[in-house]
What does this fold into?
Amino acid sequence: MAVAKKLVLFLRRSGSQAQFSSTLRRQERIPSKHHDIHSFVLEHLDEPLPVERLADAVGMSPRTLSRWCRAHLDESPADLVRRVRVDEARRLLEETDLPIKDISARTGLGDVSTMWRLFVQHFGVTPTEYRGRFAVA
It folds into this structure.
């Protein structure tokens, strides 16, 4: 994680820009034996991911998974899935020129209006504005 911070992420961005890598920030706090929850979600982003399916994938009961997520991640399993989906959509906006409609489908966010609402909620900008500011040229 220390190497990733030094080689991949800016410690301080210009223009008082916030660091949007919540994935790395949260990975530091996640016990290593439960990284498979995050990996499972990433591998199945475009599929329905109810708590029962997540719990089964990591060998827990739905209730135990919900408790674990609250205790270790300060979020519900549904919030975890939504956060990972938004983070992946953000990455695709930055690194690809895929249409927003395709990105919302690939990440399981549903339609463009749902993605638009989540981006405004999480980042304060629409997906189009986000791409305009942060896309790699």
Residues 9-16 have pLDDT under 50 and may be disordered. The chain has one domain: 32-134. The chain has nine helices and no strands.
